[in-house]
């Protein structure tokens, strides 16, 4: 039997190369809780949960507390191969704490796929063995964003995700105009307002971008997360595909968005769904509705991004990826895991996540 023997949590903090700015926040460093779960046969599973208070409501302290005081007692002594029961108990043990749940979830999946001798993406479905990521342009002045866009294209990225929604609408239009003029027509542009627009303003702004021929691939979460009617109104009144992000944490929320045809696409993030277990359900529901999904990430290291990338590679219906966060970090804390060659991401042949170690973690903060 494969028995979970210990759960260790560590805190890490790593500066970014450049501040990451959206309509919701400005981030200067990645800060997350790293989870290390070990079984009685010596296998180690890795997980991670960043603090993203303005989106998930999870802080480093709340993540730590949930894992140490609520999840660890449920995990230790359990048979790993009953992972359906383990993950059900984790999700039922407390409301919220989706990031903490995700960290434990990915470590469990790491261990189960190791036991089966398969890379996690193959264990989950194995649809493809490499993926491509976009790169995000933080919201700044149009000139600075244009310069950043040129640099990212020169580094090999052919899809850019542009953050807007921070100032006035005309400034957002000028940002996209400047970027499109700087990078030409061959690079895809995705626009992410991070809930920064009002419904009618969103419709007017997107239509203006359409009239200007800015060729936007999609617009992500233009309105407040709770405003499903408003999201549907935007979707119904523009030609550009609309993607739901913060509006969808759970499978139930995904079903509501899809049932009402409130969005054309869904962005799944492990930190919202509480991990791979629920993320797969969201994707399957979307697939039945004929709606494609993207898998994205918060500002997190290659631990969490590796887990999300394995999920993205495993499913046909996941057609877009947003995994640039580790490339923004000044230092890489992960040994092994998914590897970057420009925008192309490849997976190690090792079983599980393929993560060998996590270094530079500040300190152990409980077990």
TrEMBL record:
<keyword id="KW-0460">Magnesium</keyword>
<keyword id="KW-0479">Metal-binding</keyword>
<dbReference type="InterPro" id="IPR034603">
    <property type="entry name" value="Dipeptide_epimerase"/>
</dbReference>
<dbReference type="InterPro" id="IPR013342">
    <property type="entry name" value="Mandelate_racemase_C"/>
</dbReference>
<dbReference type="Pfam" id="PF02746">
    <property type="entry name" value="MR_MLE_N"/>
</dbReference>
<protein>
    <recommendedName>
        <fullName>Dipeptide epimerase</fullName>
        <ecNumber>5.1.1.-</ecNumber>
    </recommendedName>
</protein>
<dbReference type="InterPro" id="IPR029065">
    <property type="entry name" value="Enolase_C-like"/>
</dbReference>
<dbReference type="Pfam" id="PF13378">
    <property type="entry name" value="MR_MLE_C"/>
</dbReference>
<dbReference type="InterPro" id="IPR036849">
    <property type="entry name" value="Enolase-like_C_sf"/>
</dbReference>
<keyword id="KW-0413">Isomerase</keyword>
<feature type="domain" description="Mandelate racemase/muconate lactonizing enzyme C-terminal">
    <location>
        <begin position="142"/>
        <end position="241"/>
    </location>
</feature>
<dbReference type="InterPro" id="IPR013341">
    <property type="entry name" value="Mandelate_racemase_N_dom"/>
</dbReference>
<comment type="similarity">
    <text>Belongs to the mandelate racemase/muconate lactonizing enzyme family.</text>
</comment>
<dbReference type="InterPro" id="IPR029017">
    <property type="entry name" value="Enolase-like_N"/>
</dbReference>
